[in-house]
Structures are given as C-alpha cells and as structure tokens.
Specification:
Blueprint lengths: L2 E2 H8 L2 E4 L7 E2 L1 E4 L3 H7 L4 E5 L5 H9 L3 E4 L7 H10 L2 E4 L4 H10 L10
Parallel strand pairs: 4-5, 5-6, 6-7
Antiparallel strand pairs: 1-3, 2-7
C-alpha cells in the first residue's frame, strides 16, 4: 500500500521543513530507529523514516537507502545544514511534536507497515 506524504503531514500534525517531492511523493513502508547503520541495514527503499536524529548524516543515509521522507520526532531542532542537504537531494523533512512511538502508531493507522520479516 502506498501513502501520500501529504497525508503523513496531516496525520502527524507535522511541520514541513523541506518539501522535497512531497506533492507527488508516496511511501510504501516505514522504518523507525535512531542508529544510522541499522537504518542502512534494515530500512527499505520507499519507506518513511521516523527518528529523533536531525544531523546532516540522516539525509546521506536516506539518500543511500532511497528514503523519500524523514520524520523528526519530539520537536527536535534540525540543523540548517541538514535542511540544505535535504533540499539538494529532494528528500522531504517533517518535524512533529509526537514521540517516535506516537508517530509510528499514527503511521500504522494510515496503513503504513514496516519491513516484512520471515520467521
């Protein structure tokens, strides 16, 4: 299932810091975590990434993995360098007052799910 990024903005009560491809952008899954190496190993292309990290390396990781939208939780301040890099890469950055847990819950209600695991 694909969900429009603009629907994520509404569901999270998020502030759009960088629009990126938001108007026509969609996500097909989700990932939540703050460890960059874990995101590289486990997030899937096309996912929305929920994190408290807000430094420029999150944009590099999102670009590497193919993540079109990063949600920064807990109203964390975002460095201007992070925003500049996101603009260059066309990656949407959203900021929400919700905790990561609350954000993931809201995304789940939209129909977004994480990586399918085979156990």
């Amino acid at each position: 299932m694909k969900v429009r990024i603009r629907d994520i903005v509404e569901a999270l009560g998020a502030l759009v810091l960088v629009a990126g491809e938001m108007e026509r952008g969609e996500v097909s899954g989700g990932y939540c975590g703050d460890l960059l190496s874990d995101c590289i190993a486990n997030a899937e292309e096309g996912s929305v990434w929920v994190t408290v990290q807000s430094h420029p390396n999150v944009v590099a990781v999102a670009s590497l993995v193919g993540i079109p939208c990063i949600v920064i939780t807990n109203n964390q301040e975002v460095q201007e360098q992070t925003l500049e890099k996101a603009r260059e890469q066309g990656i949407t950055i959203l900021k929400t007052p919700l905790s990561s847990f609350e954000a993931v819950s809201a995304l789940s209600r939209l129909g977004i799910s994480g990586k399918k695991r085979h156990v």
